Amino acid sequence: MRAIKKTRKGQLRHMSPNFKSAVGKAVLLVIVLGLLATVLSQGAFAQTGGMTALFSDDFEDGTADDWELETGWGIELENGNHVLSGKGHSWARPVRSEGGGTITSFKTRIKRLKGGIHLNFRLGPKGTRYFVGVNEDRLYLNKSILKDPVPTEGNPFEHPELIGVRLRLDSAWHTIKVTGNGNNLKVYIDGQLMIDYTDEENPHLSGSVAFETLPDSHFYFDDVVVMGEAPPEPPPGYVWKKLGGPLGGLGYDIRMRTG
Ligand SMILES: [Ca+2]
Ligand SMILES: [Ca+2]
Q: How far is CA 150 from CA 6, 126, 156, 159, 206, in A?
């Protein structure tokens, strides 16, 4: 395996206007849910800061009840170890067990049986995203953006490749990790930095994660860990309640209720 590192120069902005806007949207949704007065009076939206595991799964309970699985996905047993198995062109999304939080990394072990996958990162409510592709000889980072203007029919997205490197992935287990820090994205294979890319054109700065197997493909996944900034503390007397949306949404998937 040979690492090729390419870097685009760029300023890293930890609190960009877009990020502030995303936080603003999350706050607005809570307002819509009718809890504004309570929230503001108790100063609930102080950021707690620090990285924490927002989601993790080793599948050892033999169920995928923390996942939304499309046809082709399920739990399989490999040498006594439970793994998540994905076949064909379909998706698997982790769903949160509690609310909030900004995702900073997405890590999993993968075993390639056939074909390729996408690790979707910063998947937005409208389907915009980055995806890290892995197949038999390449590792690549693409970005899905809405066409301008958005066509009235057909596929509204285009998926330009941002960077791609050679990768020889054998059929053993390997670890892949995607990290996002502002507009900088990094991809590691087995701890080795393979892609380091700074997106200076309208970067996606937030969103959820998902696995996607590609046509005529079969992969195993295990030991999934999603890290991020801890969600804001709900005000005293309230708890986050999951509404069933995908992990890392902008807040549309959760609301507060009295605890
Ligand atoms: Ca396992
Ligand atoms: Ca489970």
A: 32, 12, 6, 14, 21
User: From ligand 1's centre to the CA of 231, what distance in Å?
Assistant: 27
- What CATH code would you report for 51-235+238-242? 2.60.120.560
Could you tell me the distance, in angstroms and rounded to a whole number, from the CA of residue 58 to the centre of ligand 2? 8
pTM greater than 0.85 = no
What confidence tier does 51 reach under pLDDT thresholds 50, 70, 90?
Answer: confident
The CA dihedral of 234, 238, 244, 248, to the nearest 10 degrees, is 0
For ion ligand 1, residues whose CB falls within 5 Å: 58-59, 81-82, 222
Residue 173's H or E segment, with its range, is strand 173-181
pLDDT at 49 over 60: no
